[in-house]
Amino acid sequence: MKILVTGGAGYIGSHLVDALMAQGHELYVIDNLSTGRIDNIRHLLGNERLHFVNDSILNEALMERIIEQVDLIYHLAAVVGVKHVLDHPFQGILTNVRGTEIVLELAYKYWRKVVIASSSEVYGKSEKAPLSEDDDSILGPTAVGRWSYALAKAIDEHLAFIYYGKGLPVTIVRYFNSYGPRLDPRGYGSVVAKFVSQALQDKPLTVFSDGQQTRCFTYIDDTIRGSILAATVKEAEGQSFNIGSNRETPILELAQLVKRLTGSSSEIVHVPYAQAYRANFEETRRRVPDVRKAERILGFRAEVPLEEGLRRTIEWFREEQLD
Ligand SMILES: NC(=O)c1ccc[n+]([C@@H]2O[C@H](COP(=O)([O-])OP(=O)(O)OC[C@H]3O[C@@H](n4cnc5c(N)ncnc54)[C@H](O)[C@@H]3O)[C@@H](O)[C@H]2O)c1
Q1: Which residue in 96, 195, 299, 314 could disulfide with 258, CB within 3.0 to 4.6 Å?
Q2: CB of 80 shorter than 6 A to ligand 1
Q3: Pocket of ligand 1, candidates 18, 76, 242: which has the most ligand atoms within 8 Å of its Cβ, to mutate?
Q4: Mean pLDDT, residues 151-155
């Protein structure tokens, strides 16, 4: 098949491109390299089945030329994560809403199947655990900038459902804290990347607040397998899926695990949220996916244990440091 991966030079996108190339497909990648890196796909650049375009998904004429040629679209390009969105609030809303609208409009025009990358953030600050796909999304006030990411992703999902209503085959994947090789080593937005970088440099591991807030970390191979299943299982069309592990890990425990697996002498220090973000920052204490729907319909279950995934991630970070 001819497949477009928007944001295909990014962390998840580049792994998806690797997996789809390995299956023998022809890949089109559009990425403006704002947070993505050419190094993530450099090993594929000479391959005649890979067409890389360094441009924005907001370039409609270009997007039309690409979408016309492909059979399937994975839409991952976005201004990703709370910290990036707080730093680039306007760009975040524009890219994450208008960008998705362009993808869906053109997919509808040429009748192409689409997988939309959404986020566990759409559940907002809901304290329910586990969170199933049809649970309420509880967002904070609009004066608190961090919620614009969740809101933009929620609008993307609404748009996807509207186009599904018009008959377009669309599936939504909600990723839960994916981690693995190629995470931004600056730790921008990923607590795993932040801790591994800090530990390898013997710098203090900075845990926000008391560290008892939990997340469910999902190794990249699982994230990718779930995404590909979402595109291939017919029954998945018109639905959203939690793609994540349901093992809940307190952030303090993650810091201790990273410290142990790296053999680092770093100390673990606690930092108030306000110091890292803004005074009115709001955080969610838990975010656990209900994985039953993905299991039942996609046949997907996260498999890589946290310790194993962290070992592989640490190994990649060590190699990066040597380069
Ligand atoms: N990493 C996670 O745990 C996670 C969790 C939930 C959702 N997601 C979603 O998964 C997708 C991929 O995220 P990621 O973690 O790989 O982050 P990433 O920042 O590595 O990937 C996003 C990519 O989009 C590109 N991009 C941004 N704006 C663009 C534009 N206007 N035109 C073209 N390309 C543009 C960036 O350069 C980058 O390569 C995103 O949609 C994100 O919201 C990720």
Answers
A1: 195
A2: yes
A3: 76
A4: 97
Name which of 6-10, 71-75, 185-189, 276-280 the model is least confident about: 276-280
Is 243 strand, coil or helix? strand
Cβ atoms of residues 180 and 221 within 8 Å: yes
Determine the Cα–Cα distance for residues 317 and 193; give it in Å rounded to an integer: 9
For residues 29 and 7, what is the distance between their CA atoms, to the nearest angstrom? 7
- CA 315 to ligand 1 center in whole angstroms: 23
* Pairwise CA distance, residues 215 & 257, whole Å: 14
Domains of the chain: residue spans and CATH: 2-179+217-245+286-303 (3.40.50.720)
> Using CB atoms within 10 A of its CB, is residue 234 exposed (0-12), middle (13-18) or buried (19+)?
exposed
Please say if the pLDDT value at position 186 is more than 80: no
The catalytic residues are 149
User: Which residue from 65, 20, 28 is spatially nearest to 48, judged by alpha carbons?
Assistant: 28
Which residues lie closer than 8 Å to 276 by C-beta, 6 or more apart?
Answer: 206, 208
Other CB atoms within a 10 A radius of the CB of residue 315 amount to 12
207 strand-pairing partners: 270
Please tell me if the CB atom of residue 242 comes closer than 6 angstroms to any atom of ligand 1.
Answer: no
- Which residues are within 8 A (CB) of 210 and not within 5 positions of it... i.e. 6 or more apart? 252, 270
Distance CA 31, CA 45 (A): 14
pLDDT tens for 198-208 read 999 999 999 99
CA angle 74, 75, 81 (to 5 degrees): 130
Q: Supply 131's token pair.
A: 């969170």
**Distance from the Cα of residue 196 to its chain's centroid:** 19
